[in-house]
Amino acid sequence: MITAIKKIQRNISHLWSKSNPLVFSEKKQLDLAAEMVPFGTWEYDLLSGYINWNQPLYDLFGVDRKNFDHTLSTFKEMMHPDDRPKMEILIQRAIHDSVRDMRYTFRLCLPHQPIRYFRGNAQLVYNKKKEPIGLTGVCIDITTQKLTEKQLKKERDKATLYLNSVEAMIVVLNTDATIRFMNNAGYKITEYSETEVKGKNWYKLF
Fold this sequence. Notes:
- The chain is α+β, with helices and mostly antiparallel strands.
- It contains nine helices and seven strands.
- The strands form two sheets. It has a five-stranded antiparallel sheet with strand order 2-1-5-4-3.
């Protein structure tokens, strides 16, 4: 994700340099890139514990700048309770295991707002002694994607329930003739289990 955003920055810089002798600052480039692909950026100082968000991230989260005290504990309180331990482990792993690049997802649970899903990338920041002093990263809203995935799963589960209620054998094959789905009647007739059948070539198996 960070690589893709930097590519957008380079494209903006290239277009701008052709029409204007002035040079964009990195912040301005990020702001313009955020208008093309909505995302926010953040920084976390490991020494002070101070978290800094850019304005697009406040907008993305739906948080008023005046209501955020820039601490990790407050940010974790905004998260879904099940995601808080995972985020803490991720940060500790990055620091102690020197994981340079991290990918993360979490849910944001704010009062009077529906649960929203976010995904991001983060990198460690080092001082001149090669010691980790901070984290920096980007974050995008993937709520629509997650809700779509949930709806598709719901529809698949409903279809599977229906197909399993049919007494006749039903088999769905992939284009390479491997078995994608077989209903309960099929397992009963063939006397195979799902693990023995799924992904196997139909013509070789039967």
